[in-house]
Amino acid sequence: MSPSGHTCDVIIVAAGRGQRFGAERPKQYTPLAGRPILSWSLAAFSIHPRIRRVQAVIHADDRASFDAAVAGLRVHPPVLGGASRQESVVRGLEALSANAPDYVLIHDAARPGVDAALVDRVLDGLAHAPGVIPALPVADTLKRVDSNGRILETVARTNLSAAQTPQGFHFDKILTAHLAARGRELTDDAAVLEHSGLAVLTVPGSTANSKITTQSDLIQMEHTMLETRVGTGCDVHRFTEGDHVMLCGVRVPHTHKLLGHSDADVALHAATDAILGAIGAGDIGAHFPPSNAAYKNAPSEKFLAHAMALLRARGGSLTHLDVTIICERPKIGPHRDAMVASISRIAGVEPGRVSVKATTTEGLGFTGRSEGIAAQASATVRVAI
Ligand code: MG
To answer: Cα of 229 to ligand 1 centre, how many Å?
Structure first.
């Protein structure tokens, strides 16, 4: 129930085949910043406090893809679409009619950038008209062109707006209008209501809510949906009796080993914390408490792999990981390539995205006195905003 006391459901039209997109799977299931395009708008509506039911209309062939796209989201089981977009909308409206809402929003799955403020503008407008659509003024000069590319005329831009979705309607009005318009090809739901003689208002649309039609639209949209973040990590372990140290997952012979609950791989610990830091996911101790006997002598590559899994679960990727090992001994240089290869394997990224460096502290401090090894790392990641 919305604050105004009106119930509102949303229909997301996702039954199309996306021929213009030219991918092997339907456009709405293509990943955008790590999640299917469709799941972005489903998620936006499912968390909106004024939306009661999220009803997708899908193609019969896409049920498995749909189920994967909505995992964890509060959405209603889908209904199957018809032969045209218009027919699919009618199927969606009919599915809602048994428990009809006061208002319905109809949204295209190919607009993943819909946001709560835009939804609010459309819903607020429904207090004043039976139909409301978001629209943007047309910025480019418009030309009418013949099939040879020759300009026939320049179209006056005054009073022209580009229509977006979600388009909002009084439910009973749009259902009646759609049933009356069956068999007549109309380009959007607003046109269906206009055809029945009812008023449709526009409210400001949003440039982020543009439609993905081509692969280049998708690439453009990824840029607006991903951001770069940097995390840092730091760790220290002290020496104890032993004959080797583990650094970056590589066994390096030495006069001592590092003391720790796990294998004490100080470099991988710093790297893990850097990735966790970049996604605000706490630190290594929170994920793998030393009090847990399961991590006794554990290979630290487990920790780095876990941080990478968390990053990927957020649709993220590792752009670069830079690790610095601080010690007098052992010499890191002879092992550097093996260390880069090791981190690259554990993290599942190309070696070119990994850097391992070393420094001494000129005999100063605890590392200078060879009491232990310190490491620091910075991780640069791309994640969904
Ligand atoms: Mg540690």
So the answer is: 23
CA dist 225 and 33 (Å) reads 7
Query: What interhelical angle do 336-347 and 301-313 show, nearest 10?
Result: 40
Whether 316 maps to a domain, the answer reads: yes
Query: Which neighbouring-strand residues pair with 32?
Result: 35
Q: Compute the distance between CA of residue 291 and CA of residue 308 in angstroms, rounded to an integer.
A: 23
Give the pLDDT mean for 293-316: 91
Could you tell me the distance, in angstroms and rounded to a whole number, from the CA of residue 351 to the centre of ligand 1? 23
- What would the pLDDT profile of 320-379 be if each residue is shown by its tens digit? 999 999 999 999 999 999 999 999 999 999 999 999 999 999 999 999 999 999 999 999
pLDDT at position 33 is: 81
Q: Does 218 map to a domain? A: no
Q: Which domain holds residue 313?
A: 226-384
How many A from CA of 363 to the centre of ligand 1?
22
Q: Is residue 221 part of a domain?
A: no
- CATH number for position 343: 3.30.1330.50
Residue after which a domain boundary falls, among 183, 213, 243? 213
Domain count, the chain: 2
Residue 208 within any structural domain of the chain? yes
Q: In 3D, which of 104, 37, 99, 23 has the Cα closest to residue 66?
A: 37
Question: Residue 22 above 90 pLDDT?
Answer: no
Of residues 159 and 8, more confidence is placed in 8
The CA distance from 116 to 232, in Å, is 33
| CA 287–ligand 1 middle distance (angstroms) | 12
Helix (H, G, I), strand (E, B) or coil at 305: helix
**Torsion 346-351-352-356 (CA) sign:** positive
Q: Are 127 and 273 within one domain?
A: no
Report whether 167 contacts 122 (CB < 8 A): yes
Rounded CA separation 11/312 (Å): 30
Global model pTM greater than 0.85? no
What residues flank ion ligand 1 with Cβ within 5 A? 235, 269
